[in-house]
C-alpha cells in the first residue's frame, strides 16, 4: 500500500509541461552566481554563522574530481586520469583548504552529514580515502550518529574495499549503475557486468551499510523499453533502500564528453517516454514510494518518513532529510551554502590548487540571497518537497500579503490548475497526482530569475 501519492502519467500534460526547467537544488540556481562574490564574502558569511544565537550544525561535502574513464553521458566536473599521485596531490591541496576553513567554524558545531561526490570518490585508493576521512575528523567535530555517505563506482571497488569503508565510519553508499545492458554500456563507455554491481551491493548489505542507493539513467543511446525493464527488474531484485532514475539530458554544447554520444542511437522522445513510464510503473508496483522528481525509496526509509512529516529538504545532493545545516563544500567546483550565502570554488582543478598554494580560499563566484530570494527559495522548496503551499505560513514568516505579492505568479498558475496539476485550497494550493511529475514546472513560476523568452534554449534539462 503506497504511503505517498503516486504520480499519474498523461502524455498531453507531458507535451505541455515537460519542457526545460531548473532542478532547484538551490535558489537562486548556480547559473546566477557572480564573481562579485568572493573569498572575503564567504569568510564574512562563516563569521556571521558563528555569531547566531544557535549556530547551525554542518553538512560537509568533498568533491573528488577524478575518474579513470570518461562516461560519454557525463555532465560532471571531472578530470580523467589513472595517476595515483594525482590523488595524493589533491589530498595535499584539500588539506590546505581545510586548514583555511576549519578554524573559521566554531568547534562546537557538529558535522551531521558528510558526503563524498565527484568525479569518483573511489578513484582514491583505500589509504587515500582513510587519510581524507581522518583529516576531516581531525579538523571538524563529527556527531556520533553522523550520516557518512559516498558515491561508489562499482568498477573501482571490491567487497574488501566496501568493508574497509564501513570500518572507516561510512554508513551510506550510492552505487552508480545507470544501465545493465551490454550494448548501452558500450555506447556510453561505462562497462560493468551485473555480477560486479551485485557483489558490491551484497558486500554493502553484509557489512551493515544503513542505506544503499542505486542510480539509473534513462534516455541513453541504444536503450529500449524491454532492455531497460530488464535493468529495472534486476535492480528491484537487489532491493536498494533508495533509487534515483535520472533523465539523461543531452546537452553536448554544454558538456564536451557528450559529443562522443552517437545521436542517431539516442531513443526517440516517444521511446524515451515509454522507457520512463515503464520504469516508473515497475518501481511503484514493486513497492517503491515516489519522493519527487527522480527519487524513489522503500517505505520506512528515512526519506519517506521525512516526506511524510514535512521535514524533507532539497539541496545540492537532491532530496535530503537534513534541513537547517550549513553546507561547507570542499574541492574544485564545490558549492557551499552558509546562511544566505552561496560560495562556489574554482571549477578547474589547477585553479583551485593554485589558489590554495598561494594561501587563498579558492572561491570563484557566489551570491548572497536577498529577502525576496529567501522567500522564493522557501516557496520553491515547499513545492518541490511537500507539494503544497499555505500562504498564511509564508505571510507569517515574511510579513507580506501573499496574494498581493504574488498576484502575477498566481495568475500564471491558473492554466496549471485548469489542467489539474494543482488544486486551489482555501488558503493556498496542493499538487495533485497529475502534477507530481511536474514539480519543477510548477515551482518555476516563482523563479524571479527565469526568463521564459531566453531560458528554453538548452540551458536546463527537460522536466519529463
Ligand atoms: S559520469 Fe561519473 S564516473 Fe562517469 S566520467 Fe562522469 S563523473 Fe566520472
Automatic annotation (TrEMBL):
Pfam families membership: HemN_C (PF06969), Radical_SAM (PF04055)
Enzyme class: oxidoreductase
Gene3D superfamilies documented for this protein: 1.10.10.920, tm_1862 like domain
Cofactor section: [4Fe-4S] cluster
Cofactor: how and how many bound: Binds 1 [4Fe-4S] cluster. The cluster is coordinated with 3 cysteines and an exchangeable S-adenosyl-L-methionine.
SUPFAM superfamilies, A to Z: Radical SAM enzymes
Sequence positions that bind [4Fe-4S] cluster: 67, 71, 74
Chain sites annotated for binding S-adenosyl-L-methionine 1: 61, 118, 151, 335
Purpose of the protein: Involved in the heme biosynthesis. Catalyzes the anaerobic oxidative decarboxylation of propionate groups of rings A and B of coproporphyrinogen III to yield the vinyl groups in protoporphyrinogen IX.
Name recorded for this polypeptide: Coproporphyrinogen-III oxidase
Species of provenance: Wenzhouxiangella marina
Amino acid at each position: 500500500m503506497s504511503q505517498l501519492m503516486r504520480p499519474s502519467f498523461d502524455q498531453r500534460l507531458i507535451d505541455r509541461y515537460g519542457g526545460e526547467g531548473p532542478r532547484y537544488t538551490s535558489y537562486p540556481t548556480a547559473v546566477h552566481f557572480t564573481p562579485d562574490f568572493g573569498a572575503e564574502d564567504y569568510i564574512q558569511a562563516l563569521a556571521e554563522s558563528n555569531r547566531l544565537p544557535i549556530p547551525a550544525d554542518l553538512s560537509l561535502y568533498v568533491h573528488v574530481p577524478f575518474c579513470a574513464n570518461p562516461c560519454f553521458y557525463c555532465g560532471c566536473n571531472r578530470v580523467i586520469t589513472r595517476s595515483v599521485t594525482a590523488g595524493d596531490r589533491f589530498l595535499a591541496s584539500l588539506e590546505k583548504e581545510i586548514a583555511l576553513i576549519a578554524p573559521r567554524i566554531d568547534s562546537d558545531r557538529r558535522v551531521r552529514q558528510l558526503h563524498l561526490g565527484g568525479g569518483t570518490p573511489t578513484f582514491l585508493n583505500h589509504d587515500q580515502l582513510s587519510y581524507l576521512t581522518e583529516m576531516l575528523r581531525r579538523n571538524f567535530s563529527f556527531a556520533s550518529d553522523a550520516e557518512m555517505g559516498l558515491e561508489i563506482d562499482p568498477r573501482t571497488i571490491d567487497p574488501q574495499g566496501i568493508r574497509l569503508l564501513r570500518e572507516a565510519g561510512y554508513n551510506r553508499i550510492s552505487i552508480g549503475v545507470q544501465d545493465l545492458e551490454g550494448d548501452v554500456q558500450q555506447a556510453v563507455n561505462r562497462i560493468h557486468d551485473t555480477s560486479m554491481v551485485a557483489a558490491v551491493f551484497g558486500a554493502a548489505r553484509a557489512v551493515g551499510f544503513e542505506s544503499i542507493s542505486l542510480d539509473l539513467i534513462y534516455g541513453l543511446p541504444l536503450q529500449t523499453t524491454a532492455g531497460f525493464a530488464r535493468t529495472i527488474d534486476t535492480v528491484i531484485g537487489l532491493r536498494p533502500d533508495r533509487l534515483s532514475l535520472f533523465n539523461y539530458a543531452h546537452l553536448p554544447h554544454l558538456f564536451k564528453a557528450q559529443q562522443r554520444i552517437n545521436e542517431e542511437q539516442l531513443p526517440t522522445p516517444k521511446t524515451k517516454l515509454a522507457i520512463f513510464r515503464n520504469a516508473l510503473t515497475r518501481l511503484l508496483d514493486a513497492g517503491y514510494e515516489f519522493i519527487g522528481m527522480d527519487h524513489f525509496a522503500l517505505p520506512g526509509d528515512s526519506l519517506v518518513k521525512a516526506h511524510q512529516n514535512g521535514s524533507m529538504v532539497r539541496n545540492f545532493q537532491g532530496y535530503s532529510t537534513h534541513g537547517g545545516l550549513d553546507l561547507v563544500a570542499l574541492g574544485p567546483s564545490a558549492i557551499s551554502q552558509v546562511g544566505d550565502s552561496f560560495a562556489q570554488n574554482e571549477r578547474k582543478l589547477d585553479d583551485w590548487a593554485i589558489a590554495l598554494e598561494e594561501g587563498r580560499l579558492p572561491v570563484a563566484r557566489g551570491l548572497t540571497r536577498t529577502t525576496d530570494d529567501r522567500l522564493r527559495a522557501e516557496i520553491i522548496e515547499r513545492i518541490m518537497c511537500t507539494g503544497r503551499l499555505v500562504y498564511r505560513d509564508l505571510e507569517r514568516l515574511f510579513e507580506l500579503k501573499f496574494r498581493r505579492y504574488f498576484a502575477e505568479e498566481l495568475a500564471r498558475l491558473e492554466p496549471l490548475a485548469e489542467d489539474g496539476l494543482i488544486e486551489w485550497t482555501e488558503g493556498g494550493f496542493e499538487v495533485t497526482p497529475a502534477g507530481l511529475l511536474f514539480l519543477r514546472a510548477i515551482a518555476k513560476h516563482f523563479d524571479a530569475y527565469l526568463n521564459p523568452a531566453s531560458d528554453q534554449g538548452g540551458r536546463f534539462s527537460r522536466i519529463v
